[in-house]
Amino acid sequence: MKLSQLQAHIKAFDHAPEQSEHYFLKLIEEVGELSESIRNGKVGQPDLDNLKGSVAEELYDVLYYVCALANIHGVDLEKTHDIKEILNKAKYQR
Ligand SMILES: [Mg+2]
């Protein structure tokens, strides 16, 4: 799945621009859960039975709220990636 497809998928059922602050707080909450899963060593690619509390799950949760916030603020993350790549190549001489 492309990032633009993930953004569109999330926007189809979870898009409430009036709750921007709520989405941001959820993102921070998920970053905290990611920290805990890393500290607990729940790394690697889990299967369905072992996803709960894993780094994989929390990374996805962070990505979910990044996409939701991007949707609320009218940001196309793929286009932003393309622009940042140009800027970062110049900045870091890649
Ligand atoms: Mg989570």
UniProtKB/TrEMBL annotation:
Transmembrane segments: none
Record InterPro entries: MazG-like_dom
UniProt superkingdom: Bacteria
Domain NTP pyrophosphohydrolase MazG-like residue range list: 20-89
Gene3D superfamilies from the UniProt entry: MazG-like (1.10.287.1080)
UniProt protein name: Nucleotide pyrophosphohydrolase
Organism, as annotated: Motilimonas cestriensis
The organism's taxonomic lineage, starting at the top: Bacteria, Pseudomonadati, Pseudomonadota, Gammaproteobacteria, Alteromonadales
